[in-house]
Every structure is written in structure tokens, then in C-alpha cells.
Design brief:
Order of helices and strands: EEEEEEEEEEE
Number of strands: 11
Number of helices: 0
Distance between the termini: 37 Å
Shape: globular
Largest sheet: 7 strands, mixed
Oligomer: single chain
Radius of gyration: 13 Å
Strand content: over 45%
Amino acid sequence: VQFVESGGGLVQPGGSLRLSCAASGFASSMYAMSWYRQAPGKERELVATISGPGGRTNYADSVKGRFTISRDNFKGTLYLQMNSLQPGDTAVYFCHVTMSGLDYWGQGTQITVSS
């Protein structure tokens, strides 16, 4: 299992970014996948989840209406479109999957929201 994340960076408040997570080594389309984030001094928290074949989505209350999780099963890639970014969104963002009771994580990508 391997993830390659991209799309992080510095953005001003109110701006947008899109994260990508290219998955390989497993049939990613069959599994629910998620984005988590961890801010300095805080615990890692779940941001959004998308189910396997059905593509149902769930979001943390703090990002509902601003973030959109999606996936391209043909490319094996998970996305997180982030709009109306706020300083409170500053964190390292990780893609994640659980398979056979084991957790797999991307390397993380830094998002900094600051003027």
C-alpha cells in the first residue's frame, strides 16, 4: 500500500486548495477512504470520508459546506477540494484507509492558511 499526496501549500484566508492522494498497491475503489488532519499540539481528527463503490460522503461539522471529498476510481486517486479556507484549517492533512483492521496513512501534506 502506498499513498502519494500533493497539493498542499500556503493560502490566504478565503482561498481554495485541492489535495490529491494517489493510491497504489491495493484495489482502492473497494474501500472507504478518508482525509484526516492534525494541527500543532492537537490530536489527529477526521475531516471527511468517502465510501467505496457507493461514493457516499461524510464530513466533520467544521468543514461541511466548504470541503468536498471525491475519488477517481479509474485513476486510484482521492481528492479533497477545500474552499473558504480559514486559519483554523491550518494542519498537516493525511489520506487514510483501513484494510483488514490495519490503518494505512499517507505521508501528510502541510496546509497553512495565513495572510
